[in-house]
Structure formats: structure tokens, C-alpha cells
């Protein structure tokens, strides 16, 4: 989950040309009593190889939708997203990272900094949350990020409108608005988890294994109650409201967001069901 979630926030980009890997990802149908309908499709933001995400069921759902809803619509515009990150991240006079983390975690931080090619004092003009996301990407392979499914869905949308549930500025703004104590908890979670994630998230996603994916949403930074509330639960509530508004406006949206947001009692399917919609997993 740490990789799935952090790399999602930390700006994954562009597509590859390898032979796609077969997949059977999770898909839900949403139906309302007044004839409203929507589709929920759990994506993955990075993978070692391209993914054959468009199964027959997913293709039919996408073709039958008139709007595509995603977390961030301008993922392909690296310059714009990077500029947004830089603007929000900048903060003068910050102490070295080693002073923003518990002393006993110093050696693990030093190892992660070395791996990322940074030194302890490199983040003197960067907020703690931004420094944490920067070093979290130390082992990120751009080719893997380019295999993310979100971007492929947006390309497949064709002439249909693509609506943002959040956008890069708002998404990164959630981190920027965290109190310093929670930003330091984020840094600690990333340092603690670095190099320990052996979960095959891509494998779980290809199989549509939501049990495994839900299990991962209970680890790492999302195990922290405050971070979980801001970065997971409240975002899902906001997105649920936007999906409901789209349906009530007569649209049939195809909602393509990270599969973690579909997981468990605080995921989008459960939240929509709690509002009286019939939510059925069809794949």
C-alpha cells in the first residue's frame, strides 16, 4: 500500500511499449433508485510492465459511460505538476531532516538519503511532507510509473470529458496543510517502511484481490489515524459526494481511481452503498 499510495501522490507519469500483462482488475456497478448509474474501476499507478487493463467487462463499462472521473487529469503534463509541487513544497529555514525525526531512526534515514542521492541538509527550503515524498521516490522507476493505468484510461476516454475528483494542487495541498507533527509522522512512516515492502501490489491488482489490497491500506502511513483520516477517509467522502452529484446531474461516470480507494468499509463502494445505492462488483 505504501508504494501504491505514495507513488500516486508523488507524481507518476507517461506510457511504455512492452507487451501488456494480462489482468482481471476489480470493477463495480453503481445503481440508484431513480435510474442513476456509475462505474467504479480500481486502478494501479505504477507497474513493472504494461497492463492489459481493458477486459471485456471494463471495456463495456467505459464505452457505456459519458464521463470519466479521475484523481488528477493532467498527469501527462510533468512540468505543470512539478511546478505545483515545487510551489507548495517551498519553505525557508527548515532544519536538517535528521532533526525532524526521532534520533533512533537516524541510521535508517541516513541510508534512505544515501540511496536517494541526497544529504541531510538538502531540504532546508522544503516542507517536511515534501521532503518525505521526495525520498520516498528514491527507488521509483519512471518506466514503472509510465505503466500506470490511470493515464491509459484517460487516453481511452477519447472525446468524452475527463473530470478531476481532486487535481494535483488540491491533492498535494492535503499534505501541505498537515500540521508539522503529522508531517513528521509521515516522514517517520516512510523511513520505517523503506525497503521492507515485499507485497506484490501489481499481482494483487491484476487478480482483483481486494482483500490483499485492503490489508495494505492498514499499513505504513495509513496506519496512523490522523494521516489515514486526511489522506484516505476524508478524500473518499469528498469523492463520493462528487460521484453522487454527477449521477444526479444525469451523467454516467466511469470513475477510475487507485484501487486502494475501493477497499474496505471506508472505500468508495461502501460509502456509496451507505447512501442507498446498489453497488455490485461485476469483475
What does the secondary structure layout of this molecule look like, with pairings?
Layout: H1 2-9, E1 21-22, E2 27-31, E3 37-43, E4 51-52, H2 56-63, E5 67-70, H3 78-89, H4 106-116, H5 128-136, H6 142-145, H7 149-156, E6 162-164, H8 168-176, H9 180-193, H10 201-207, H11 210-216, H12 225-248, E7 253-258, H13 268-274, E8 278-281
Parallel strand pairs: 1-4, 3-7, 5-6, 5-7
Antiparallel strand pairs: 2-3, 2-8
Give the structure's gist in a few sentences:
This protein is an alpha/beta fold and 283 residues long. The chain is 45% helix and 12% strand. A hairpin with a 5-residue loop joins strand 2 and strand 3.
Give an overview of the whole structure:
The protein has 283 residues and is of the alpha/beta class. The protein is built from 13 helices and 8 strands. The protein has helices at 2-9, 56-63, 78-89, 106-116, 128-136, 142-145, 149-156, 168-176, 180-193, 201-207, 210-216, 225-248, 268-274; strands at residues 21-22, 27-31, 37-43, 51-52, 67-70, 162-164, 253-258, 278-281. A 6-stranded mixed sheet has the order 6-5-7-3-2-8, sandwiched between helices. A two-stranded parallel sheet has the order 1-4. A hairpin with a 5-residue loop joins strand 2 (27-31) and strand 3. Helix 3 runs parallel beside helix 8 (168-176) and helix 5 runs parallel beside helix 9 (180-193). The longest helix is centred in the C-terminal third of the chain and has 24 residues, at 225-248. The radius of gyration is 19 Å and the shape is globular. The two termini are 21 Å apart. Mean pLDDT is 89; it is low at 11-17.
Amino acid at each position: 500500500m505504501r508504494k501504491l499510495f505514495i507513488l500516486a501522490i508523488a507524481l507518476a507519469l507517461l506510457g511504455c511499449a512492452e507487451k501488456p500483462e494480462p489482468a482481471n482488475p476489480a470493477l463495480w456497478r453503481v445503481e440508484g433508485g431513480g435510474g442513476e448509474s456509475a462505474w467504479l474501476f480500481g486502478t494501479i499507478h505504477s507497474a513493472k510492465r504494461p497492463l492489459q487493463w481493458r477486459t471485456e467487462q471494463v471495456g463495456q463499462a467505459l464505452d457505456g459511460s459519458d464521463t470519466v472521473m479521475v484523481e488528477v487529469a493532467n498527469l501527462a503534463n510533468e512540468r505543470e505538476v512539478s511546478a505545483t509541487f515545487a510551489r507548495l513544497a517551498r519553505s525557508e529555514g527548515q532544519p536538517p531532516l535528521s532533526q525532524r525525526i526521532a534520533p533512533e531512526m537516524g541510521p535508517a534515514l541516513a541510508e534512505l538519503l544515501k540511496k536517494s542521492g541526497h544529504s541531510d541538509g538538502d531540504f532546508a527550503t522544503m516542507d517536511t511532507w515534501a521532503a518525505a515524498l521526495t525520498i520516498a521516490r528514491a527507488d521509483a522507476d519512471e518506466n514503472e510509473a509510465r505503466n500506470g493505468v490511470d493515464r491509459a484510461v484517460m487516453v481511452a476516454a477519447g472525446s468524452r470529458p475527463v473530470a478531476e475528483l481532486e487535481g494535483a494542487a488540491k491533492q498535494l495541498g492535503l499534505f501541505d496543510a498537515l500540521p508539522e507533527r503529522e508531517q513528521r509522522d509521515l516522514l517517520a512512516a516512510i523511513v520505517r517502511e523503506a525497503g521492507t515492502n515485499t507485497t506484490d501490489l501489481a499481482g494483487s491488482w491484476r487478480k482483483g484481490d481486494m482483500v490483499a489490497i485492503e490489508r495494505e491500506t492498514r499499513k505504513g502511513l495509513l496506519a496512523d489515524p490522523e494521516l489515514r483520516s486526511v489522506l484516505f477517509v476524508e478524500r473518499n467522502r469528498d469523492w463520493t459526494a462528487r460521484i453522487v452529484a454527477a449521477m444526479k446531474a444525469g451523467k454516467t461516470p466511469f470513475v477510475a481511481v487507485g484501487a486502494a480507494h475501493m477497499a474496505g468499509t471506508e472505500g468508495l463502494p461502501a460509502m456509496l452503498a451507505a447512501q442507498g445505492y446498489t453497488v455490485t462488483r461485476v469483475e
